[in-house]
Specification:
Elements lengths: L1 H21 L4 E6 L9 E5 L3 E9 L7 H8 L7 E9 L9 E7 L1
Parallel strand pairs: 3-4
Antiparallel strand pairs: 1-2, 2-3, 4-5
Length: 106
């Protein structure tokens, strides 16, 4: 049951981030790779580039995303694409970070 709750939590945050980008000026289209096991969960299309986003979320006090960042840094994408890791940090009594944090963007 807990695994499903965590998955639902992450998927809910993906939907929220997609809606946030849809409201941004200059965004042509936003798509979500629902059910994908790929590296990127959301694709944001701008006039001159595409932003490929990996979405993570956590309720834990401390989480390291060093491995995910390393993976993104070594992922080859076309030159008109940019990569990013967006993390949603849920409220936690022992953490000062909360909300959306861009942990990596090239």
């Amino acid at each position: 049951m807990k695994k499903n709750n965590n998955k639902k939590f992450r998927l809910d945050k993906e939907r929220v981030l997609k809606k946030m980008f849809e409201k941004e000026p200059g965004v042509l289209q936003v798509t979500r790779s629902r059910g994908s096991f790929g590296k990127f969960d959301i694709q944001v299309f701008f006039e001159d580039y595409i932003l490929l986003i990996s979405v993570k979320s956590t309720r834990k006090q401390y989480v390291s995303y060093k491995e995910e960042i390393k993976l993104l840094q070594h992922t080859t994408v076309p030159k008109y694409c940019k990569k990013a890791l967006y993390v949603y940090y849920a409220k936690h009594k022992k953490r000062t970070k909360q909300g959306w944090i861009v942990e990596y963007k090239d």
